[in-house]
Amino acid sequence: MQITGTFIDEISHDIPHQNWGAEEWDTDFAHMKAMGIDTVILIRCGYQQFLTYPSNYLIKEYNCFAPPVDLVQLYLELADKYGMTFYFGTYDSGEYWKTGDMRHEIDVNLHVIEEVYDSYGHYKSFGGWYLSLELSRKTKGAVTSIAQLGAKCKAVSKGLPVLISPWIDGKKAVMASNNELTKDSGISLKEHEEEWDEIFEGIKGSVDVVAFQDGHVDYTDLEGYLKLNKKLADKHGLQSWTNSESFDRDMPIKFLPIKWEKLLLKLNAAKRAGCEKAITFEFSHFMSPQSAYKQAGHLYNRYMESPLARHRRGTE
Amino acid sequence: MQITGTFIDEISHDIPHQNWGAEEWDTDFAHMKAMGIDTVILIRCGYQQFLTYPSNYLIKEYNCFAPPVDLVQLYLELADKYGMTFYFGTYDSGEYWKTGDMRHEIDVNLHVIEEVYDSYGHYKSFGGWYLSLELSRKTKGAVTSIAQLGAKCKAVSKGLPVLISPWIDGKKAVMASNNELTKDSGISLKEHEEEWDEIFEGIKGSVDVVAFQDGHVDYTDLEGYLKLNKKLADKHGLQSWTNSESFDRDMPIKFLPIKWEKLLLKLNAAKRAGCEKAITFEFSHFMSPQSAYKQAGHLYNRYMESPLARHRRGTE
Amino acid sequence: MQITGTFIDEISHDIPHQNWGAEEWDTDFAHMKAMGIDTVILIRCGYQQFLTYPSNYLIKEYNCFAPPVDLVQLYLELADKYGMTFYFGTYDSGEYWKTGDMRHEIDVNLHVIEEVYDSYGHYKSFGGWYLSLELSRKTKGAVTSIAQLGAKCKAVSKGLPVLISPWIDGKKAVMASNNELTKDSGISLKEHEEEWDEIFEGIKGSVDVVAFQDGHVDYTDLEGYLKLNKKLADKHGLQSWTNSESFDRDMPIKFLPIKWEKLLLKLNAAKRAGCEKAITFEFSHFMSPQSAYKQAGHLYNRYMESPLARHRRGTE
């Protein structure tokens, strides 16, 4: 299963910034392209007061800072140049992470979605929306929020696809600020099925693609979850992608690139589960030859030597 | 607001060593010079048993280790070579961090100050003193200690300037060994004013420059503190510099280079507040093109492309 | 005291992987050789479900994953090529770390030892065994386990030497997942002597070499422990090596390369204590010029410039 999409983690919650300029981003898109990536997904357009684009609305209403560069424009131009599809990630005020209630984020994003499509919707590569509010089973107001925001995205953009990337409440679902790497108990497959069946029922029509994060469960348990997610997605008419994390959740440094063998295991499990597409969080820190983490460049090399990439080259 | 000074973080509390030799330090001073840095400040001359110079006094009386290289001599030679001013940072036995009582550090430093000026005072670049005991409002014995040590520095060196760099007890004032990035409550502007008015009253005459660390309060609150610090410094006849931290306090890896946008915001706030000079903690790990953290080199490039550096070049 | 051996940390507990391929490993062995390393020690052949070699036994009985590369074969070929001795590290199911009872690991390893010697014992460089179960004084079942596994190793391989590398229960003996860097109290020299005298009595005959980890006690206390360990080893007919850690235990990032001065201090203490050999944990992350941690390459340079390496060159 080849990786054909990646998040772009600007603005970051917990991954230190690389301080790249336009030149480094251009080089990075070229590396992505060489690896077979055709889809880039902005993880969020803003977090708290930091923004990726000079939003009049957010600067005025939310006291956000005017950014030194318009990254949304830069990414769209690069996606145009390299023939990729760009998904726009919505705003995250930070409130949701404190309260666990996603409804805080609805109103602001209804405005952002309009503003952004007005400003950037004309780019050829503007091809979808990513609802950046990461949900899991216990997220208050998730169904309402996702349904309402997804519907808005589709309404303003003549039906462009909407992507979400929830997490499984598995044993590795701990906060980055938490010292521990695991918690005692994760959700069972049965609970996961019941709860997500209900969630999917509530959001279908507003969302097109669900790409579960693949790093919160044990490597041996992953395939079971991927298959179940695929079954549920099929039932509700959603596409099932895998969001294959390229950072390592098993190490005390939070976070450095994942061991190649682990990524390979996860991608093989996704293939067996029938996922339609594999994306990763994320290329530029964890798989790029120019990453500040040198392990990322080696991961890129291992990937490029592997049958996954050989298959890609064979089909070009 | 241009950065014209930097700390040199040898011996380090919490930043891993780069293991540089004389050649790498020479290159680093050249990078600093190219960026407009005219002042280097040794963060401390020793911490617990590790020393930057072969102090007879500390080796004999405090059981310190004889260092493999005399870094104080090396830095002074390089400062001479590159036409910079060197500030000598006093000794930190480590006791103060355990007890919170700064008076432990007075006696040892009265000896160190004499020994050091005897050995190194003749260097052209030896231009000031840095009292390495980082204080905040609740530090026991701070006023006595700072006043006494500052007076001693001036007495032995015919009045060379004395610098301190306190921290604001803001919401990000947590220990590096603490997992959390913030605490629930920080000091209010009003409390800060009252307490520092009193502290400045007690240390004036012994101290010339106060450079508050700028990383412990929210980005939006910083300007208020900088302005208040400037007002208080003016009232007591002190210079007000900003110590603009070039590492990121908002990330779970403690610590990697700061995002360029954040540094820029802080420097702009310091300019508006009327700070006389901006220094940073610190160039060699967090802004240097040869740093082990590649993000640092990119931060350097962003800085050099910015109006801050353009202004510098224009005035040469 | 020159470093002439290193662990190879694949599979890792807590050090992020570098994602090297065969080419990088070949280069790394060349760097090791240039530094005077003649012994490489596989830290463990597998951890939980991840393996370094395609073990039929572990894949079938323990549900382990078939690895993408046979690292044991690769390392043996490189050790043959560079004229080094290879020590094979036993399997760690992970159970021991949860329960503190080492007896879980006996049965599985009795099988692994046989399987491995059958498959790889013919390599010229296959020269010893490393019992990967790190013990300290309170490890349940340690004496039984070590004695039984060591005897098995010797029986299958016609007496090849067996190495263990315990830790001293000093003040820095805290888990990597623990935020704190130290605990309040460590073992006293007297307790250490009594307890290890008893342990050595129980394992002698099954073990040839004891290489205590040197990073869990204060730099000033280390020499006392090294001397005591040497005395106890002599008494029981064991060799006493030092396992001189090349990562820094004093920093909040767990873990980056150690400061050169600290490594030098520890090696000098080991020399004074009369250790027969110094090995390190470990070269590839923390001392290699091609490490992802650039500080490691500088540590290599400092080491190569030092009298330790000059002595080596002088005796060639």
Automatic annotation (TrEMBL), chains A, B, C:
A Pfam family annotated for this chain is DUF4434
Where is each DUF4434 domain found?
A: 3-293
Q: Which SUPFAM superfamilies match?
A: (Trans)glycosidases
Protein name in the entry: DUF4434 domain-containing protein
Its source organism is Maribacter chungangensis
